[in-house]
Amino acid sequence: SNIIGGIDAKRIAELQAEEAEIFRKARPKSQARTGNGIAGYFDGVPMHWMTDWPTPFPILVESARRATITDVDGNQLDDFCLGDTGSMFGHSPAPVARAIHKQAGRGLTYMLPSEDALAVGTLLQELFGLPYWQIATTATDANRFALRVARAVTGRDKILVFNGAYHGSVDETMVRMKDGKPINRPGLAGEFRDLTQRTKIVEFNDLTALEAALKAKDVACVITEPVLTNSCMVLPEPGFHEALRRLTREAGTLLLIDETHTISTGRGGYTKTHGLDPDLFVLGKPVAGGIPASVWGMSEDVASRYAAYNRSKEPGYSGMGTTLSANPLQFATMRATLEEVMTAENYAHMERLAGKLAAGLAAAIKRHRLPWHVMRVGARIEFICAPGPLGNGAEAEGAHAPELEAAVHVALVNRGVLIAPFHNMMLVSPVTTAAQVKRLIAAFTDVAAKLAA
Ligand code: PMP
Q1: Cα of 226 from ligand 1 centre, angstroms
Q2: Contact 220, 254 (CB under 8 A)
Q3: For the domain 94-341, what is the CATH code?
């Protein structure tokens, strides 16, 4: 018979049907209001990702506080998804809520700096180590702008991504490797260009392929996460980051580190914790505690080359910037996040509980002899329904078990726990409690026992 992630497909289908029924019964109000689509929206949802949750219909949220979501039917969920990182520091962190309240009566956008902007500039320098910064509104845009600068200062057209990477909806990163050949990422809507013309792709951890791809000295920039968090979770092998830095330098290629997810590692992100030395740095999602904002930083060298480039180029629109970026609400909330939320104390709590959570999940997997594994980067944890560790994006693609994962997700929701959709990610925030971690471990262990039986 058909085995997925070590489990008989029939057993998965049974669990899926059983849990879908339990989910429906507990949510009559949600079902009445979202179950047939929400009026006014294409496909019944305001953002199409909302249909990608594995639940029979979207949960209608009444409120979210700390690390708990309450839905309109009165169900409470321990939230380990946390807006897929946007609320990594908890829902409406108190210092951020105070900053919003204070700024609310002082104007929300005016294309001029506020006093908070002065503070944020030096906070970014201190926390992340790069000397020059710009503000955008999404991590997607920050990556787009940083890549534009990389091309401008190197005079090179190509970029390089690792197979399985995700950096937001940046068109030119939408390349995948299939049977060793680069292709446009399957599923892209309305894309007629061959993106592989300007984007090279190699497997993460493959230094030989990386060196070969950089050899022609036509790559402006390598863009990567320190850990691949969007392809299950693939850790860098020992020495990978040192070699990546050396090879990019030798080839005159810039290195862009996207910390949007790995900011879970600790204060200053993976870059600071592990002493990386990027030319360009991007952070979005939680940098303003849940208010849309992103930051991108440049090294001294990139900044001086970009200034020279600007002096030499024809005047005109740079192709960067969006009107609402660098607004005073972003500065107020970023300042609060950088000063009062991303504290060493908060990270210590996250690290301690995340360690407990990872150990508890691994113990359940071992006890029920499932061929699965658990990975972690600081407060970010992933269980993977295949043996590990995984070495690259191709292995991660092979490890995906969508039907199994969907059934497990709904079963966890029915046991009071929400984890991120599309993959099996859990985040521990500064306000996540030991009791919530215990409940997740118990729920996961119960589901594992059901599947293994
Ligand atoms: N970079 C990384 C590493 C991401 O995981 C994501 C989103 N998951 C982004 C950038 C894009 O973030 P946003 O959708 O907020 O633009």
Answers
A1: 14
A2: yes
A3: 3.40.640.10
